[in-house]
Amino acid sequence: MVSRKTTIKAAEGLHTRPAGELVKIAKSFPGTRTMITNGTREVNAASVLSILSLALKKGTEVEIKAEGPDEGKAVDALKEFLDNLE
């Protein structure tokens, strides 16, 4: 399992549109299980509703986890997306 932390920088937090884009990235790594954790809850990164349930606001630290054949690439891609979200 690979994991990395990042902080939500987008002024509006992680709302529906970027959550949908995040899910597309997570689903682009078949066979790799991806998760997002906000410290208290861990959800499936391939589910828009699960991600939205975290109510991620600007300044929230999250941990991105992945397990499977492309775990490193998946974590890197998800972190890059979140880091560049404004």
Describe this structure in words.
With 86 residues, the protein is of the alpha+beta class. The protein has one domain (2-84): 2-Layer Sandwich (Histidine-containing Protein, Chain: A), CATH 3.30.1340. The protein has helices at residues 16-27, 48-53, 71-84; strands at residues 2-7, 33-37, 42-44, 61-67. Strands 1-4-2-3 form a 4-stranded antiparallel sheet, covered by helices on one side. Strand 2 and strand 3 form a beta hairpin. It is globular. The N and C termini lie far apart (28 Å). The mean pLDDT is 96.
Give the key terms.
3 helices, single chain, 86 residues, four-stranded antiparallel beta sheet, alpha+beta
Summarize this structure briefly:
The chain has 86 residues and is of the alpha+beta class.
